[in-house]
Amino acid sequence: MKKVLGASLLAVALMTGVSAHAEDRFIVVSGAAEKGLDPNLVHMNVEVWSKANTAKQAQQLAANQFKQVKKALDDFKIKKEDIQTDNYSLNPEYEYDQKLRQNKLVGFRVTQSLSVTLRKVEDAGTFLDALVSDKKTADSGVNVNSLAWDSDKRSVAETAALGDAVRVTRTKADEIAKAAGVKIKGVSKISHGTSGYNPPQPVFRNFGLKTMAADAAQTELSSGQIKVRVEVTAEYEIN
Description:
It is built from four helices and seven strands. It has a domain at 41-150: Alpha-Beta Plaits. The longest helix is centred in the C-terminal third of the chain and has 27 residues, at 154-180. By secondary structure, it is an alpha+beta fold. The protein is elongated.
């Protein structure tokens, strides 16, 4: 009985050793590929804000300011599904009174944040200009807090880049195997990750305060290209 048990333990030990050794017989390489895309979408975060002595006045100012935004959305035929209200807030504002040593209510502020997708990238500059009100005011306005270029063909570019990245890893593995005098038996594992790079974007703020003449030059934006990068790590089993 002891001999049988000892033989079984020895067999397990040998199998474990072979398995651990086999796991070390890999060539692990990484590769990357990149594709460029011309953007056909613009994502913007548009914020309408107002401030007043009372909550009702602040809401009315914000509503009036939103009319300018709504007109721009309608004029550029932006679809309802491309407009989303991300946030609406009405909050009191306080200032610290040094004499009384306590916070003092000084008014109310309304902010409404919208996510807008523009599907004609060539209209981005004129759309921003349309958000600007000709009426000068320090109590309400429109901010464009962010602008990002995108493409609805991004997934197609990612798939193409993925294939290129895998081929890069195979080329590297073949060169390593040739130099080491071994042969590749097959692929053991492949993992990948995707990252996108957009050119630095301008941030436009305080469009409610118009400081230029009405006949000033129109806003021009340069979109550049969207870069889609795929990185692959592959394990190739060798003999």
